[in-house]
Amino acid sequence: MNWVLCFGVVFAVVFGSSEGSQIRCKFPGHPKNGYLRGDWINRSEGETLRVECYEGFKLKGPSEAVCKNGEWTTALGKCEVVMCQPPKTGRLSISDPPSCLTGSSPYGTLCRMSCPPGYPDQAGLFCSKDGQWEGRDVVCKDRQPPDLKCPSKDQVITHQSDPGKATAKVSFPTPSYTDNSEAHGGKLSFSATLDGKPVSVKKEHELSITPRRFDYHEVKYIVTDEAGNEAKCYFLYRIQDKEAPKITSCPSNIALTTKKGENMIRVSWKEPTVTDNSGKDVSVFCDRVNYSQFPVGTHLVRYHVSDRSNNKAFCEFHITVKLPCIDHPDFPITSVNPGIVLPDPANACSYPASDLTKCDDAVSPFVPNLVWKQICRKTCKAC
Ligand SMILES: *[C@@H]1O[C@H](CO)[C@@H](O)[C@H](O)[C@H]1NC(C)=O
Ligand SMILES: *[C@@H]1O[C@H](CO)[C@@H](O)[C@H](O)[C@H]1NC(C)=O
């Protein structure tokens, strides 16, 4: 009996359901992305078939069906791929393929994550079998400093001091800068310093004279992005002083007469008054020594004035030293021989001009007194 039953089953397997006593259920087909468990070959009455899904697939619908009276109790469910919902990523994260961030992605999707230019990071996300993302999102940290354009790197800008002033009014060039972060809503902050102190670039600035060749005013521009990346540039101002000092009072010429019997005299004068636009001390040099002895003759006195920028000014005057008028031996003449040669006018500086009254005393036994007096006056005027 057992053998017969057994044979019948074998017969039925080999020759199909049309023969044999048992009714079989129809083969439901192999599930996609999964497999069948149970006797899907014999599919005999009471047999249970179970669907199992491969990794990364999830069953939708019934997992089991029982063969009853030649019919499955239910249609088996289907294995659907597990989906990952868009990952929560940073604001600046970029995915490849882009669809990773726009919709759900099937199991096994690999998303290469990157950042915009200037934010160097790379990472990857993988849609795992349980619908969760594995891996790491990028951290988009801006590491690119802003691009700041200076008038020209290390440039020296030269201005001349304003007339009569120790400064020059200067307008700084308008800074020009951009940054990668601006495309993503990033804000930049700009600041400027002049000689290390914060200044506004919109205002005019009065820069003082820089007298020596390597003295400069330094202007620095600084742009910072929100990530703290900084771009700096600096340039230099040289303020030249080309204005010479002004000598407002130069001593006038001096004429002096030595004392009787001396051929030198001490001469002193007042120092000239000097002003300079720089407002700084100027150097004053005189090529003659004040209150020193000057011999008979004419002497040029020259003041050399120069400011710290080596602008020069000069001032000159003359000192004339004369011998005093001496009493001419021929005046007053009280006695003279006939045929006397009258005093030579060129040499007849007999009296100081102020002292011509002495001619009133001039008497000559040979020339009428009145004429003699006139000769005396005329001759002595040369003094
Ligand atoms: C199918 O049925 C035959 C006879 O009843 C049995 O010997 C065989 O083992 C069955 N096949 C499976 C896969 O169970
Ligand atoms: C020269 O000396 C006199 C007398 O000492 C003084 O009053 C005068 O200021 C001096 N002038 C200069 C140029 O130093």
TrEMBL record:
Residues making up the signal peptide according to the UniProt record: 1-20
UniProt entry keywords in alphabetical sequence: Disulfide bond, Signal, Sushi
The keyword Signal is annotated on this UniProt entry: yes
Alphabetical list of CDD domains matching this protein: CCP
Gene3D superfamilies: Complement Module, domain 1
A Pfam short name: HYR
Lineage top rank: taxon: Eukaryota
Disulfide bridges in this chain: 84-127
Location of region: Disordered: 151-171
SUPFAM superfamilies named among the record's database cross-references: Complement control module/SCR domain (SSF57535)
Protein name stated in the entry: Uncharacterized protein
Organism, scientific name: Paramuricea clavata
